[in-house]
Design a protein that fits this description.
Blueprint lengths: L2 H27 L5 H8 L3 H4 L1 H24 L1 H21 L3 H29 L5 H29 L3 H21 L16 H18 L10 H21 L13 H22 L1 H7 L5 H29 L1 H26 L1 H28 L6 H31 L9 H29 L15
Helix pairs in contact: 1-6, 1-7, 1-8, 4-5, 4-6, 4-9, 4-16, 5-6, 5-8, 6-7, 6-16, 7-13, 7-15, 9-10, 11-15, 11-16, 11-17, 12-13, 12-17, 13-14, 13-15, 14-15, 14-17, 16-17
């Protein structure tokens, strides 16, 4: 089959995978705008209503690696279809919930389905998309993820304008059913394989990893309402459970995460860079609103419009970033993306203080494509050399590392901002202090990006005259 024919053959597959990625990202973002309405509907506090968002994020984080492993064992298409059914059923449960507890349960089950969609979209792309188009496929998945993040609040707002909050969950169920049809039609069944034993699931390792990730998720959220444990205790528990997980995996006959995966320098560094860049990405979401509101004096509507620029630019840049990766190689695009990230963060630290909201937007427009270049290149580098037996596992680890970075950024970068500002109440702080804290936070973010760039150079040494290696070879 010629290259154009290969590209045409992969188009329906990409459409189905893009729909899966869009559905999962909508599940994250659409609920945030519903929180005020939910507090009135169920007569609960804001801190209790926030579990509607938190339950989804925690469920995605704790199940994302296991989702990839299930795909490797039982077939990526089969598990993807199961994830879509779970997501649709959970959405219906949320739409019909008569109390907050049932809604939170539905959101947690949605998160399990969302983890499957996020993870297996990448692994199916690796197996079914021609090698020369893998970067474009990763870019498309990044585009649809960003588009879902940007569209979620808008769709949620329209739903509230036209009806009640339950329509949002019926809408998510509809997206899941439509995606289910696309996957059935576009993605061929997995090759026949021997029936795996349930011993292959590594249940002890899975249980310990879930405990570690759940503790870390709750710890970095600052201690969620209803959890009578301090963040320090939760993070200590997460560290202890992680150490136990490593011990279990080194002795397991069929480990969930073989420690040999981390012996490949490029793969291990790919996960580490994902965490660092995820931490930096989250800083723009958790610190930016305080600067825009309390230093530049913008009202809530304008702040929302400014912050929406990032996801919109990301949606526009995902596919070009993927094509650049296919054209010039993952290593070159990764270096360029990280270097542009460093420059963009320095601009974000300085330009808004000189040029106000115009400087902020200019820096954001420069920074967001850099994130997309890095993500497309890094995902391609890790997945391009993955064996058939490890595709789901590696895509799950990529998703997990990004989630860990986002959660770390939400906690650590906001803590840094408050520490430099000198008070936890930005409304009471002098404008000069808010501006200084904003600048220092993004200087630190730039340092983290320099560290990521250093890791990229270390793991991808430039060899004169040799072809670019795009991923670990197995």
């Amino acid at each position: 089959m010629t290259k154009p024919n290969l590209a045409r053959a992969s188009l329906p597959i990409l459409m189905a995978l893009a729909a899966a990625s869009l559905t999962a990202s909508l599940g994250i973002s659409i609920a945030s705008v519903l929180l005020p309405t939910l507090t009135r509907s169920f007569a609960v506090t804001v801190s209790h209503a926030q579990w509607v968002v938190l339950a989804y994020l925690v469920a995605v984080t704790v199940t994302i690696v296991s989702a990839g492993r299930l795909g490797d064992l039982f077939g990526h298409r089969r598990v993807m279809l199961t994830g879509l059914i779970v997501f649709a059923a959970a959405s219906i449960l949320g739409a019909t919930a008569q109390d907050l507890g049932l809604l939170i349960l539905g959101r947690a089950l949605q998160g399990v389905g969302g983890a499957i969609l996020i993870t297996l979209s990448m692994s199916i792309a690796r197996g079914m998309v021609p090698a020369g188009h893998l970067g474009a496929a990763m870019g498309l998945l990044g585009t649809t993820s960003a588009a879902g993040t940007a569209l979620g609040p808008s769709l949620g707002g329209l739903v509230l304008a036209w009806g009640d909050w339950r329509m949002a969950f019926w809408l998510l169920a509809g997206f899941a059913v439509l995606t289910l049809v696309l996957v059935v039609l576009a993605i061929r069944p997995d090759r026949t394989r021997s029936q795996p034993s349930f011993r292959s699931l590594d249940l002890p390792g899975t249980a310990v990893l879930i405990v570690a990730l759940a503790a870390y998720s709750l710890g970095t959220s600052g201690g969620a309402s209803g959890v009578p444990v301090s963040p320090v205790v939760l993070l200590t528990g997460a560290l202890s459970a992680t150490a136990l997980f490593v011990v279990i995996e080194t002795r397991a006959r069929a480990p969930l995460v073989p420690m040999t995966v981390f012996k490949d320098r490029m793969t291990a560094v790919g996960f580490a860079m994902n965490i660092l860049v995820g931490t930096v990405m989250m800083a723009t979401l958790v610190v930016g609103p305080f600067f825009l509101t309390f230093s530049l004096g913008l009202d809530e509507a304008v702040v929302g419009l400014v912050l929406a620029i990032g996801p919109v630019v990301a949606a526009l840049c995902g596919m070009p970033a993927g094509r650049l990766t296919d054209r010039f190689g993952a290593r070159r695009v990764m270096f360029a993306g990280l270097a542009q990230t460093v420059f963009g963060l320095l601009c974000l630290a300085l330009l808004p203080r000189c040029f106000g909201v115009g400087g902020y937007i200019a820096a954001l427009v420069l920074l967001t494509p850099a994130f997309q270049m890095f993500l497309a290149a890094n995902n391609t580098a890790v997945m391009s050399g993955a064996s058939r037996e490890q595709r789901g596992r590696l895509s799950g680890l990529l998703g997990l590392s990004r989630n860990l970075g986002l959660m770390t950024g939400a906690s650590a970068m906001s803590t840094l901002f408050v520490a430099v500002m000198g008070t936890g109440d930005a409304a009471e702080a002098p404008i000069a202090n808010v501006s200084h804290a904003f600048t220092m936070t993004f200087f630190v973010a730039a340092v983290l990006s320099v560290a990521a760039l250093g890791l990229a150079v270390w793991s991808n040494p430039i060899r004169g005259g040799s072809p670019c290696r795009t991923g670990p070879q197995r």
